Amino acid sequence: MFTALRQRFEAWVTRGQRPARDPVRLERRRIYILPTRYGYAFAALLFVLFLWSINYSNSMGFAFTFLLVAIAHNSMWQAHDTLLGLIIHPADVEPTFVGQDAQLRFRLENPDPEPRYGIALQWRDQPPSYVDVPPSGAAVATLTIPATQRGWLRPGRIRILTRFPLGLLQSWSWIEFESAALVYPQPRGQRPLPAALPNSAGGGLHEVGPGSEDYAGFRPYAPGDSPRRIAWKAAGRNEQLLVKRFTDQARPELWLDWALLGDDPVEARLAQLCQWVLKAETESRRYGLQLPGVRIPPGQGDMHRRRCLEALALF
User: Fold this and answer.
1) Which partner from 166, 177, 201, 210 sits 20 to 30 angstroms from 80, CA to CA?
2) pLDDT for 252-281, tens place per residue?
3) Domain locations along the chain
4) Can you state the angle between helices 266-282 and 302-313, rounded to 10 degrees?
5) Which pTM value belongs to this model?
């Protein structure tokens, strides 16, 4: 009941606000403040003290009560100004896998020469992440959001809050950015990597050009050749310097094909293909990915891995 009312209130307050692409600066009209449960208890205590002071006409009681009221008022002012003017930058997001947690790192910038303490970011009912922002500096607050399905994970509205300095009042605002985390399928499956296919240039291993793997005889010396490759023994029997020649060999192509997984469900196929991509990369294999409507030629390396995983995530 309370959660539903809060969500309706958030939707009413943030109506008309579109997800931001640029950094957001908190202004007065975007900041709200209410007592915490400790604040309500403190207010009840002040009311009791006030009634006691009236009943006994105790001037010291009045002085003590009004002193506490002044402290609470100053706390409210500081809680509001801790957020006022704060600049929140869009999140820096790294891709993750289904079943893991997405890490959204927001940069909080303080343009004032005074530090700001106890600022937190909170997503839904998750525990808030607190940071202190130095004067005329910045700090990074990390939100952890569970990734339950593949594709783009958009966190939606995020609450930024503070209870500084005494915890009697909570000042907060809502922000929403266009940034999202890419969630890859969960890598799982029992099938081994498919057999590599002979490449299209000749069926099997063949010489593809200069390299450093296999010895392939001698060639005349050319300026710029490494002295370590000069065949000094052969140079004594010839009038010209000879250089050892090496070649690399073309390897069979490994294709991770959607059609190889038969009639498995879509998510099971994607999970198996994801596992194959990670395994092929771990074994330093050159591999390509074949999906309905998507064909990624064989390659290797971090960029190729990311490209294949992104295709699986957005399929």
Assistant:
1) 177
2) 678 999 988 888 899 999 999 999 999 999
3) 1-184, 207-249, 254-313
4) 180
5) 0.72
